[in-house]
User: Which sequence fits this backbone?
């Protein structure tokens, strides 16, 4: 089967990442942690397969994820954790909006990320 016919397979569990709201890759793009230049070559994963990121989504529509070990947010600086929770949760909510929107991919990121991209790459 051609790679493009396989869908987006999770690098961790091997299952299809069928929904944008389950995508670690698109969440990282929306919050500015994946450069648009490498989006198409970056690995895909389910959010739940990446607990180090998923633990920062704080929304009643997203069941909490625990991350054991050194990156457990309960072991980190509370101010850092608040900032990560704010950013990652806003990014996940943006993914939920995008699932029902018809926008070009360049408009997916949060506004502050789009502004930084315009400054870096031009309009």
Assistant:
């Amino acid at each position: 089967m051609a790679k493009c016919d396989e869908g987006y397979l999770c690098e961790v569990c091997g299952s299809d990442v069928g929904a944008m709201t389950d995508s670690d890759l698109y969440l990282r793009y929306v919050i500015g942690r994946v450069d648009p230049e490498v989006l198409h070559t970056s690995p895909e994963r389910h959010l739940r397969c990446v607990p180090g990121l998923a633990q920062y989504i704080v929304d009643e529509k997203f069941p909490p994820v625990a991350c054991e070990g050194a990156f457990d947010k309960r072991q980190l600086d509370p101010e850092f954790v608040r900032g990560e929770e704010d950013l990652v949760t806003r990014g996940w909510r943006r993914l939920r909006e995008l699932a029902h929107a018809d926008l070009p991919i360049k408009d997916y990121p949060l506004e502050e990320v789009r502004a930084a991209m315009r400054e870096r790459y031009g309009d």
The chain has one domain: 3-109.
